[in-house]
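Think of the structure tokens as a kind of shorthand, similar to the way a musician reads notation: each symbol stands for something richer, in this case the local conformation of the backbone. In the example below we present two proteins back to back. Begin with the first one, reading the sequence and then the tokens, and try to describe in your own words what changes along the chain.
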Amino acid sequence: MSGTIRRPNKRKLKADINVVPYIDVMLVLLIIFMVTAPLLTLGVDVDLPKSNAKSSNTKTDPVVVQVDEAGNFFLTVKAGNKEAVTAQDLAAKVGAIVKQNDKEKLQVYIAGDGRANYQPVMDAMNILQSAGVEKVSLISQPEKGRK
């Protein structure tokens, strides 16, 4: 007999990873996400206004309603002097201005004091709306040092 011993055939170790189950799981998750993604839109349909954002170049002078810190109303028409008015006078005078001018071209601004409560500014908006004004803009002053 010879001195060589034969070993029985052993299986070689496999160094591969079976990825088939992982691919199956990934495809199932992909299908689940594709089906549920359209259902996850948690938004509200809003009809946003269209704007060209150009500066206002008008031929008519705007009507400016000012609200001071104490909640008093002041009316300035045609770049004239500002006059103190009550809520009833404001509604009557602005209503007369609306009847004389085109509603589309009439510009009405509210200038509220920064220290004033918000309620008098909202009251001015309600008064102007009841007087027939369709569009009201708010005047603000940029902070110093900002462009």
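Once you have a description of the first chain, move to the second and do the same.
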Amino acid sequence: MRNKGYTIFELLVVIALSLIVGAAFYTFYNTVIKENISKSTIAKQEQDSFILANEVVKDLSTIGFGVDADRLIIKDGTACDLDGTNNRFLTYCSSQKQLAYLSLAGSEDQYAGCWGFIDRTGKLNTYIVNDNNTIPLSYSYLNKQCPPNAGKYIRLNTSKKLLENAFTYDPNNPDPSKRNSYAFYIGKNTYPNDPKIIPSDFKVIYSLDDKNLPRECAPGTYNLQKTIGTSSLPSPVISCVLDFQVKYVKTDNTVSTSITNLNELSAIKLCMIVQVGGRQSVPDNPHNYSQAGGCDQFNYSNNDWRYYRWAVIEQVIPLMNIR
């Protein structure tokens, strides 16, 4: 009759089986956890990309803000910089992938974007009154407060013609002679009287540059950078950008690379491809722009790009300041 209990061999077999099962369970658990963390990280990075892109969209929505009617001229919008004759306030250069435009909200002054209507008493009102409601201008559009003390402004009439390229508005001493006109804050900047002179303090340029890229950026990507005026240095806005395009949206909703009549222009379309996360171990088929969206299809010619995730951004931005 056999004694009750287990032999050493049986115990070793049980321990070995337990270790195998435990290792398998740990591997499975660890894989699931890592996959969930990876998905969460990618989702966060993708969300961050769209947040940064949304800041660019907000910025581009101010194109033409405060610009007088004589400078709201566009011939074809295809040059690589603004000039005093053909493309005075907006142009996109496809060869350099560079966007240039004018906006009084583009300067780095903390009150840039302040504007209002001067009433018959000379008071600057940052609100409009219509039959339905009262809408504060500083909250309904740019959400910019005007300075509490005296500051320098330009004046436009109701047809957006330039009345005065610099005057000082003092909230404590309003001037009735300035009545029935729009005022836009310019601070210490300069706004020329001559419509053929580009007010360089309010020129904004978005361009691509591959200098000082973060290490995690894929080869062939760029920093999307912003330059304000002619005296400031470019500052990166979004890193690891693979593509940057701007198209013109006409009033009939067609998308074009050029525009010949300002009255035909209603919006611009921003097209961007931005890297999400670092290099992956498994290749993927990257997404492209929608076929009928108007953006030029991007050529993923570099096979290395298949090892990265990409966020594709297509955004129509109404131009509310060109009428």
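Compare your description with these statements about the second chain. The helical segments are 8-60, 137-140.
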